[in-house]
Specification:
Layout (H helix, E strand, L loop, with lengths): L17 E3 L2 E3 L9 H12 L8 H30 L32 H7 L1 H8 L5 E7 L40 E4 L4 E7 L4 H4 L19 E7 L1 E10 H4 L2 H26 L16 E3 L9 H14 L6 E4 L1 H8 L22 E2 L2 E5 L7 E5 L1 H4 L1 E4 L3 E6 L10 E13 L6 E5 L5
Parallel strand pairs: 4-13, 8-16, 9-11
Antiparallel strand pairs: 1-2, 3-14, 5-6, 7-15, 9-12, 10-11, 12-16, 13-15, 14-15
Helix pairs in contact: 1-2, 3-7
Length: 438
């Protein structure tokens, strides 16, 4: 059909594009008509009193367009509803690219937050940026306190896939118990200077004058009380290890270094500072704090260590500060567990079939550590007598800016923490000196 022979629209003057069913079909401005354009066109024709076309066909088109518009609205409503749908609270989102990487596994509740310094370091945006920048410069991830679930720790959704590499070093340090710090009350400090009041009043029995008084009679005054203002600073405990650039790309190796060497080393040193720090260049150790109680069997005493600990516990109770734990050298704890009566029976019932069972003695929690000198022990109400103040948790820093490490393709991972011990009630502790073996 010749296009020039097709009729034009009587009002718009637009030439028809074809003849369908004997009627001309006119184009809609802008190309293929949309549903709204078709709706408006049909509505306009239905409202035109002078329209001389097939009205039944026009009504059929109107019904068809209406059905299509309703269908489109239903689809749009379903899409909005689907996008607004959410999983129930606590239902973990699938993380197929992270769940199988070291340090990316969710916790017991399915939440993807880290549970150790190493995991927080691996997940940090800082490490992701450091790797993307060619492992140049330095960065740190700090404020990681793992006595409770970390708050505000950022995670990274992408980690480079690396071949599994056998760690370059295997930790060979002995697995000493690190439980002394857990005996203390632990608090966070906002500054670097620590000031606290140390009670030097002596046992409560000497100043507690509380009494029953008759009606109208004067009430007794307790005292005297005496306190010393102690001002000190938070001490920094830190160390570092060298690693290769290839190790910095391997999540498993990084976690091994951070957990196996760096974090362990900080905890190891913290335990010893809590017990024996000199209080000046080091943290304040409980054993070096003036005013703590002492107990030693009398000259010629044949009390075994088991009995000595029990009598020292009584001394602590008489000072009105009930003991909760005792810290022993492993050799002294061995002597106590292997102590036999005249019939060859162990006095302490030890569960040798379950080495992981809690160690208890006279109702006290037992902590063994080589930081305690053999022949001595520390007994006390640890949470009552001292507080471990921490400025921050473990800070992990990585850099290539050390000596000639840059040209040797070697990096440094450094771990540090700042803390100090406030021994505010020395009377809550008793230093035990065991009688010499006969």
């Amino acid at each position: 059909m010749n296009r020039s022979s097709l009729p034009r629209h009587p009002r718009t003057g637009v030439r028809a594009v074809g003849i369908v069913g004997g009627r001309p079909v006119y184009p809609i401005k802008g190309g293929a008509p949309t549903l709204l354009e078709q709706r408006d066109e049909v509505a306009k024709l239905l409202a035109d009193d002078s329209y001389d076309g097939d009205v039944d066909e026009l009504l059929k088109r109107a019904d068809d367009i209406t059905a299509k518009i309703e269908q489109a609205n239903q689809r749009d409503a379903r899409i909005r509803s689907l996008r607004a749908a959410a999983l129930p609270a606590g239902d973990p989102q699938p993380q197929p690219d992270q769940r199988h990487q070291p340090g990316m596994q969710p916790d017991d509740q399915g939440q993807p937050h880290p549970v150790s310094a190493a995991e927080a370091f691996i997940r940090s945006k800082a490490l992701e940026s450091f790797r993307a920048n060619g492992k140049r410069g330095q960065f740190s991830v700090d404020g990681m306190d793992f006595r409770a679930a970390p708050v505000g720790t950022v995670t990274t959704g992408t980690q480079p896939q690396q071949n599994t590499r056998v760690p370059g070093i295997i930790p060979n340090n002995p697995d000493f118990p690190l439980l002394v710090a857990s005996l203390l009350d632990r608090q966070s400090s906002d500054g670097t200077t620590l000031e606290y009041m140390r009670d030097t009043s002596g046992p409560q029995s000497t100043w507690n004058k509380a009494a029953v008084v008759a009606e109208g009679a004067d009430k007794p005054m307790s005292g005297p009380f005496s306190f010393d203002l102690i001002s000190t600073t938070l001490k920094t405990v830190a160390h570092w290890v060298p690693v290769t650039r290839q190790t910095a790309d391997d999540n498993a190796q990084l976690m091994g270094y951070i957990n196996g060497r760096l974090t362990y080393g900080l905890d190891y040193k913290l335990d010893r500072e809590i017990l024996t720090g000199n209080g000046t260049t080091q943290m304040q150790g409980i054993l070096t704090t003036p005013g703590i109680g002492t107990y030693q069997p009398g000259v010629g005493s044949t009390d075994v260590k088991l009995i000595t600990v029990r009598k020292a516990k009584t001394q602590g109770e008489l000072a009105m500060y009930p003991p909760t734990a005792v810290v022993l050298n492993p050799m002294d704890w061995q002597d106590i567990e292997l102590d036999e009566d005249a019939n060859g029976q162990f006095r302490v019932i030890a569960n040798v079939t379950d080495p992981g069972a809690p160690m208890r003695l006279w109702g006290l929690t037992v902590v063994t550590t080589v930081a305690m000198t053999a022949g001595t022990a520390l007994l006390g109400g640890f949470r009552t007598g001292a507080t471990l103040w921490e400025r921050q948790g473990v800070t992990i820093l990585m850099t290539d800016s050390h000596a000639d490490y840059f040209t040797a393709n070697t990096l440094v991972i450094l771990a540090e923490r700042r803390a100090n011990v406030a021994v505010h009630t020395p009377q809550a502790f008793v230093r035990i000196t065991f009688a010499a073996a006969v």
